[in-house]
Amino acid sequence: MTSLSSPGPDLRTGAADLLPPRSQRGVVGWMRENLFSNWLNTAITLLLAYFLVRWISGFVDWAFVNAIWSVPGNNTTACREARGIGACWALINEKHRFILFGTYTYEEQWRPLIACALFIALYVVSAMKRFWNKWLMAIWAVGLVAIGVLMWGGVFGLTHVSQERWGGLPITLILSTFGIVGAFPLAILLALGRRSTGMPAIKALCVVFIELIRGVPLISILFMASVMFPLFLPDGLNIDKLLRAQVAIILFAAAYLAEVIRGGLQAIPKGQGEAADALGLSYWNKTLFIILPQALRIVIPPMVNTFIGMFKDTSLVLIIGIYDILNAAKTSIIEPAWQGFGVEAYIAVATLYFFFCFAMSKYSQKLEVDLNRGMRR
């Protein structure tokens, strides 16, 4: 009889023998299971791999190997001879300052460059949790004042540059940043107003506003802000078109964000509100500290999706004569010497759009994981 005190068999012995074969683990195992599991999957994988390799090799040849990187002056003969064979990145080399900064005074274009860097720095600081305190608003206030001083000038020895000369990337960042900052609190109020049960007049106004704005395209709102709105102003009073475009974008984005936030509010169990009422919390304390944080955490993906859409929709301000980075790229190829090279300009601008949109997407995924970590079981 085996003694109870004697050690039993070591369960770790032979543990390596219990692992699946190397051909079924790691990247090789994943490929065998998902790409080469049967003859049909294998055929489809090989066919797609063939076309992918052909496309990548062709793109590399066009974009890098056979590309024209510079030309003397506006002599685009080399680019036209290489059309269809190599890209004409000489367009970007020649027109990059116009694409980025529009008609801003050439000698002063270091100012919008620093302004764009400040915007990016503010985004990075806002994404860091260590700055989620009362100082964040002060940092934004100082940063926006510095951006305004750089863009307008007229102080500290800087030459004044009117808003009509602004264009390119600063316009895109200004419209999208102030659009998000202005639309977010307005959307929260609209969502709360639409769910209100004790204030029917407020609820009706919120419903009418949301449905009216969501029922028309952004172009029509921009057109009304540019053409119709000035007709109702007193004689001698004129509001800058950039400000009118900014207000139109804020109202448009707020209507869409309000519905996203309302969906998050409806997803919160009623027990959360009832528990807050039992603790004697007021409506605003209950909403701000109990209901709203949970609702916003739920709707991070659709909310960021709205932000990304708004960032790209700033290109529609062309209708009122404002040239953001996309419209500046379109204008850069109007010159006869550079006509026909729009693909290169659009690829360059698309790369910038992708950089900002991909950064927002990845950060939202990280934020969603961090905020929902306590909800996992």
Query: Portion of residues in helices?
Result: 55-70%
The assigned structural class equals mainly alpha
Please report the first level of CATH classification, the CATH class. Answer: Mainly Alpha
Largest sheet, in brief, is:
none
| Rg estimate, integer Å | 28 Å
Number of domains: 1
User: Terminal Cα separation, in Å?
Assistant: 45 Å
CATH superfamily: MetI-like
Strand content: under 5%
- Are there runs of 5+ residues with pLDDT below 50, and where? none
What does this structure look like?
The chain is mainly α and 377 residues long. The protein has a single domain, classed as MetI-like (MetI-like fold). It has 16 helices and no strands. Helix 8 (169-194) packs across helix 14. The radius of gyration is 28 Å and the shape is globular. The model has no long low-confidence stretch (mean pLDDT 89).
